Batch of 3 targets.
Target 1
Amino acid sequence: MILPIIAYGDPVLRKVATEIDADYPNLEKLISNMKETMYNASGVGIAAPQIGKAIRLFIIDASPFADDEDLSEKDREVLKNFNRVFINAKIIKEEGEEWVFNEGCLSIPDVREDVFRQPEITIEYQDEAFQTHTETLDGLAARVFQHEYDHIDGILFTDKLSTLKKRLIKKKLENISKGKINADYRMRFPNAKKGK
């Protein structure tokens, strides 16, 4: 089932999400719905807060990036198979000199900005069978992970922008929260006027 994506301005996007265990109700169905919602919105990742649930769960399918000719062969190969469920994820270590990449977010449609992040991370997480994994990610795979991980900590990519950039997009963000935007997918707006 395709769920509405929660728009910028909703308090759920600012909550630090809680860990879950294997007894979380209807988890398999939730993961399936999140995947369907993400693909319907042409996203490469979606976190549970974006569908209104403040739990430490997100999904990534970065395979669309595998067609990018500007990326190295190694990066394209990694991204082609980077399709996973992350539960109770932790970043153990972030390393390297920060690099810039233009990011967007399903909760903040039509806003894209350059964001600086470190290129290499070591992570620990559980998959949908609650098996624990530890691995190192770099490049675009690390970036997509960091973006989704921020969601479960109540952080949005716009928080990482300069004061000037934030001022320049302030009106756009206000309009998104009020529902004054045309997204290509279902959304729920926190401050939309009723009866529109």
Note: The beta strands are 5-6, 45-47, 57-61, 83-95, 99-105, 108-117, 120-126, 132-138, 187-188.
Target 2
Amino acid sequence: MSRPRLDPGLLRTFLAVAEERSFTRAATHLHLTQSAVSSQIKRLEDELDLELFSRSTTRVDLNPAGEELVGYARRILSLGDEAVQRLRQHDVAGRVRLGVMDDYGTTLLPPILKTFCGAYPGIELQMETGLTAGMIARVGKSYDVVLAMHARGDASGEFLRRERTVWAGSDAMLPRDLDPLPVALYPQGCLFRRWALDALERAGRKWRLSFVSPSLAAVEAFAAQGLAVTVTKEGTLPRSLKVLGAEAGLPPLPAANIRLHVSPSADAPASLLAQHLRENLGAQRR
């Protein structure tokens, strides 16, 4: 015995009749004749071997089987529409200019961007890493999408997730015994630099900048040799470093918010990348 087939075309006709409670009004809505609508409903009922409507001379009502089918029909048609939309998106072509923090660009984003490029091979992706504070003002000019770090309370852009900010150093280092504390940080304009120095000042801890570089890898490599402590996101902490806290005599640091900035004139490729980042870096994933 063959299984019944739920033809999407018949389901659309069924939903029109169910919503209009009339074959005549459904026919008008679908731009069909009333006899065509009646024929399609009969085909669906014959396929299911079930009656779906209770008919009278003045009205058409759903019976229990019809009421149950309504939910399934809507889900089936919605899923079909979604599949068509998704498949058509694979033909999208263009270029997206992405700006992002150095640590995300080298750790979290590569596998996420790999799946994006695999799904949309016609989109050319250009990524620049660095201090994102200056990138935000250039969204729409130099960048289509920017993934940036913000202080809590900054409402610009779209919130994606929160990252714990931590002190980090090597196993060989004993920060509590160092006076002044050697610190490896990034240039002026970096939130981590400002937060670290402000926290040390408030705690009355003497410090000295022993290493400054715009290169994340260079700062982390210097700290990994036990020459200084640095600041990083806990989620991107490299294996060469360990988290240092109160036991090391270091003050707490503010949490960092990660926010998404998209050009107001974003085209389809940029919009698709922004949505991919939302789905893969959203707050629900942390």
Note: The chain has three domains: 8-89, 94-163+257-285, 165-254.
Target 3
Amino acid sequence: MRVSKIVISITVPIFLIMLFASLLTTKQYLLLSEGLYEEHEAIEFDHEYVSDRVMGYLNYRYKSLDIGSFDGDTESVFGDEELRHMDDVKNLYTMLRLVALGSLVVAVSLSYYIFKKDKKELIRTYKNLYYGPMVFIVILGGYMIIDFGGAFTMFHKLFFSNDDWQLSSTDALIQLLPFKFWLTSAVIILVLFASSIAGIHFVFKKIERKRYS
């Protein structure tokens, strides 16, 4: 049962991180950020149209990102490096989605197993779930505060095998999704993640007190 508890403490946070990260791949989220960053002032393409196509591409609604600056335009708004990078991003995102789905299945299965064995132990497992995520949040959050640029670079070097992500400030993809967009998004994800972990702790702590005190 100890191994099951450890696996749950890993798989639940993985699923939650990916759940909140999925907010970044919605057209609505991109539209909310429109005009918030100085890079957006240089945008000459249709922000809503391109946002829809980019997010639709990542979510399998569109097969290609070889699109123009607006609907009906035939001159590609993205360069070859941008298209290659977005292809890599889609592959990575697909892999992470599968990992998240697998984590959810494993977590639910093991939770049911522990529930059948010992309901009190299941409650304790989720009540104490915050230990690992707390360390993760402190380390990652601290790193982001000290050097988000370094963290951003490390992420790309870790998950991408080429330099296609090193785009120019004049590229449409950078204008649409500038550096500060990712900083803001990372903070939002960490806040949501921390809040959800804290919520799980307090809910199961309350359940434990109500049933076993």
Note: The chain is about 70% helix and 0% strand.
